[in-house]
Write a structure and sequence with these properties.
The protein is mainly α. It has helices at about 5-30, 35-65, 70-95, 100-130, 135-145. Helices cover about 85% and strands about 0% of the residues. Helix 1 (about 5-30) runs parallel beside helix 5 and helix 2 packs antiparallel against helix 3 (about 70-95).
């Protein structure tokens, strides 16, 4: 797939994580807790990879280039922390085979995550496109998400 911007690469990764999430939710809904837990861990690992790329590479580069320390990147980091806590709680519900609790929490997470992703895709990623060096940043993203 040929993607030509930081925004497109990161948005594509959101969609990839969404697919894994949907498969995990489907398995939990079918009371296949073993498969659900496997897919849930895969989802959490992929999202953590995405968060790590943003928090350790993209956000610091943006903050350095703009001098903007307390703006959108700070908000996104705070939301990442909230989602990490939600992941732990959902994991516990899947491990205890409580489908209703897990799916209820998944619904809350999905709403939160969709709002978070929309802010990144419509506000922050375009700012990254305008600020960061295109080729070097795209190479960093491609390498980080491949690993």
């Amino acid at each position: 797939m040929d993607m030509s911007s930081i925004s497109e690469l990161m948005t594509h990764d959101h969609r990839s994580c969404d697919e894994i999430y949907a498969n995990a939710e489907e398995a939990i809904n079918s009371a296949d807790f073993e498969q659900g837990l496997t897919l849930w861990h895969e989802f959490c690992d992929r999202v953590e990879q995405h968060f790590t790329l943003e928090e350790q590479t993209l956000f610091p580069a943006f903050e350095s280039a703009t001098g903007m320390q307390g703006g959108p990147t700070m908000v996104m980091r705070g939301e990442h922390l909230q989602m990490r806590e939600m992941f732990k709680s959902i994991t516990a519900s899947i491990e205890s085979k409580d489908a209703d609790e897990a799916l209820g929490q998944c619904e809350s997470l999905m709403i939160f995550m969709q709002q978070h992703n929309m802010k990144e895709e419509q506000v922050l990623y375009p700012m990254l496109n305008d600020t960061l060096p295109k080729e070097a940043t795209e190479k960093q993203i491609t390498e980080a998400l491949a690993g």
